[in-house]
Design a protein that fits this description.
The complex is a heterodimer of chains A (279) and B (333).
Chain A (H helix, E strand, L loop, with lengths): L4 E12 L2 E13 L4 E5 L6 H9 L6 E6 L2 E2 L9 E2 L11 H13 L5 H14 L15 H14 L4 E5 L7 H18 L2 E6 L2 H7 L2 E5 L7 E6 L8 H4 L3 H17 L9 H12 L1
Parallel strand pairs in A: 3-8, 3-9, 6-7, 7-8
Antiparallel strand pairs in A: 1-2, 1-4, 4-5, 9-10
Chain B lengths: L10 H8 L4 H31 L1 E2 L2 E2 L3 H39 L16 H32 L1 H14 L4 H15 L9 H27 L3 H9 L4 H39 L4 H11 L4 H30 L9
Antiparallel strand pairs in B: 1-2
Classes of the chains: A alpha/beta (279), B mainly alpha (333).
Chain lengths: 279, 333
Amino acid sequence: MKALLELSNVGMAFDTPKGQFEALKDVNLKIDAGEFVSLIGHSGCGKSTVLNIVAGLLQATDGGVILDKHEVTEPGPERAVVFQNHSLLPWLTAFENVELAVKQVFRKTKSKAEIREWVEHNLELVHMAHAMHKKPDEISGGMKQRVGIARALAMQPQVLLMDEPFGALDALTRAHLQDSLMDIHAQLGTTVIMITHDVDEAVLLSDRIVMMTNGPSATIGEILDVTLPRPRDRLALADDPTFVRCRQQVLQFLYEKQRKVEPLPKRSDSSAEATRKRA
Amino acid sequence: MVTLTFPTWMEPYRALATGKITGDQWRNLLRQLILPVLGMAAFLLLWQLAAQRIDTSLGQFPGPVDVWEQAGALVEEHQASRAKEAAFHERQEKYIASRLEQQPEWQPVYRDYTGAPTFFDQIGTSLITVMSGFLLASLIAIPMGIVIGLSSTAHAAMNPLIQLFKPVSPLAWLPLVTMVVSALYVTDDPLVAKSFLTSMFTVSLCCLWPTLMNTSVGVTSVSQDLTNVSRVLRLNALSHVRKIVLPSALPMMFTGLRLSLGIAWMVLIAAEMLAQNPGLGKFVWDEFQNGSSQSLGRIMVAVIVIGLIGFLLDRLMLMLQRALVWDKASVQR
């Protein structure tokens, strides 16, 4: 089976006053339809850059991304993004925020009534039907993020891109949203790429966890298959040996193999280590 | 039992009336009522004391009481003028009716009343002029601000001009505007007076800058996240401006509009005074030239009215801002 999304030799170099900075190098990844993939790595390793390149918000300086036989050259609703800080338009209600996206994507194919219905359907999907006429200022952070997810889902994307979607939320809200996301994924079979810092979250939600090495010239270090059966239950998984093993492996990668060496002068050591690993 | 609900600001007065007043409510009462009244009283007292000591060639400088009397006089003059006008129209109607009875084929000629404008007529003229000038300025400044905010090329091209013209006083523009209007606005049947156009253009030229600057800053500072949303949705340029940029920039735009209206009002009075164009400024100048013993009192009435109208215009903009802007935190007093 041909992969839905393919990143081949993606590299990214930024021009800085001190010369070129190579953020990403040789990122190769194939993702099948319906897969849930997490990108994990230390901050500054270029996870967001990878996601932005897939989204089309950034142009790779090397290599490219192919989605369903088409090269990605610009952003578009078939690669909907859930941004870290919700990015809802503050002057519109939840309904209007989703409506803006739906009108943009389906204005030629759906009637007025169908558009309205589709907006409501997607807000129900994220359990926001009760507050859909409230503005972002009037709802909690978790609710805003739900609306952000509804807006992205309403575009019926081929790939849903999530940039640390739950990073700014408290632990309880985060757990709620993770469960919601699992339900939605099971229901719709959407292909998802999610950036996270949270090892438990990655293991709980993903089919595969893509672990990235530290920058500069960051790339994919290891890929872990999470074979846990779905639906997954966070309580039951707590002592599940597979869950514990997966978690262990990711932690090992992050804190042993890719230990972030903090004092900046020593940074060259860590990149040397990273280079050795790749070789 | 009937329970009356009071607006929050009335709460201290209710408490005072019933005798159950708390410390906080005393403090509120002090801030809302007692201190402003004390400030006003102190001002009136100082004014009266100072006025008694200033002798001008037009007599003693008017104190609060003189000014109050002059305000009354101006109202009376206005009423008298209106009565005269009504009488004039009545006479004209009667004359036309009686003449038509005698010769039905006669085409009646209606004439306008030609009395001198009263103080209140001048207020009306000034208000119409300031609003026209302000609207014209906004119509130019908002689109231009959006373009400058969106395009760094436009910004680079326009910025030196803006910096150059922004600090120019209205008085410097006035002769140029007057001459240009006289040269270009040549018509036998003018829709509006030349003086109106001169005042309006001068006001526009001076008050468009704050709106222009604030709009462009508001547009430039649209958050990157919202721009990304727009890109993912593939909004075209027009929708991007309408759905993302304009609403984002609206709070800043209103800050600019409020500043512009304030400037417009100040500029207008100066322009009317210098150019002898109808309005409150002309009223002040005429009184000054007139030089009767009441002139200073009448000018003082005009000063207070100008201040009051400026304040009301600002409140009007504030109300509009409160009603239209989504970001309530951006609405300052």
